[in-house]
Amino acid sequence: MNSIGPEENKPILRMFLAGIASIAAGGSTHPVDTVKVRLQKEGEGKSDVKKYKNILRGSYVIYKEEGLRALYKGLSASLGREATYSTLRLGLYEPFKHMISQDGEKTSLGVKFFAGLMSGSTGAIVANPCDVLKIRLQSISGHHQSVFAEITQILHHEGILGLYKGTMPNLLRGAILTGTKMATYDQTKQWLKEHFEFKEGFSLQFVCSFATGLMLSITTAPMDLIKTRIMSQDAGHKVYNGLMDCAIKTFKQEGLGAFYKGFFPQWIRFGPFNIIQLIVWEQLRTLCGIKNI
């Protein structure tokens, strides 16, 4: 990543631009995320019922039974999540990186990864309530419920702590995801520039964003599934007593492959999501006089 010069010393603006880019990406890929959540819930607790099966059938079943609008359940919560979680995890990456190391463009892969861990975990903790709301709303089949009705229901039956269910797996997922994301994107750009003489621009940003999406799907799928299952359980349907309990029960009842349920829709989502998010962020940075990553 380029050193932050005087013209780039705009941390609030950098975070604001990250939020705009993330909201654009989240809104564009939300239907795929909804299918992913349904697939991750499927087969839970030894259930043999496989209604959705894969991304294509899942999309068709949701559309057929609940209408097109159902693919956008939880959209407002999702956009709220991006406005907090992604604003912080992207916006704080560079400050954390330069706090850890002053090497500028020679920053090591380990420093980049650790900076991503720090910014990702910070964003995940702050945005946990939005994540719970998003997953609860996406999990509901049949009737539609507003985000305000869902908040009221959670507070009434579970209290304020209900909005912080799944904080640990969410924190770990956010840390791993952002560490992998920023280190992969940052390092891939540096490598392509040094060895293949790529110039800063759309082509370089596109290639690096796509490669980052694949790495994210591989590294975060298991924790993403655990997070989804814990967050989606309400007061009257508690199956898991935490991260380890969920992991053990999932493995015993469904096998190791269960941790990669929803992998393909996650990959399909991460590709476009990262391309939109990172390219829009980079282009906005250029327009505002902030150096590219």
Strand share of the residues? under 5%
Question: The CATH topology is what?
Answer: Mitochondrial carrier fold
Classify the secondary structure makeup into a structural class: mainly alpha
Helix content: over 70%
The domain tally reads 1
- What value does the average pLDDT take? 92
Give the N-terminus to C-terminus distance in angstroms. 5 Å
Q: How many beta-strand elements?
A: 0
CA radius of gyration is: 19 Å
CATH architecture: Alpha/alpha barrel
Helices and strands, with pairings:
Elements: H1 11-41, H2 55-66, H3 75-91, H4 93-100, H5 109-139, H6 147-158, H7 167-196, H8 202-232, H9 243-254, H10 263-287
GO cellular component, one term: membrane
Family: Belongs to the mitochondrial carrier (TC 2.A.29) family.
Pfam families: Mito_carr
Summarize the structure in short.
The protein is built from 10 helices and no strands. With 293 residues, the chain is mostly helical. The chain has one domain: Mitochondrial carrier fold (Alpha/alpha barrel).
Features:
single chain; 293 residues; mainly alpha; Mitochondrial carrier fold; 10 helices; globular
General description of the model:
This protein is an all-alpha fold and 293 residues long. It has one domain (6-287): Mitochondrial carrier domain (Mitochondrial carrier fold). It is built from ten helices and no strands. The protein has helices at 11-41, 55-66, 75-91, 93-100, 109-139, 147-158, 167-196, 202-232, 243-254, 263-287. α1 (11-41) packs across α3 and α3 (75-91) runs antiparallel to α5.
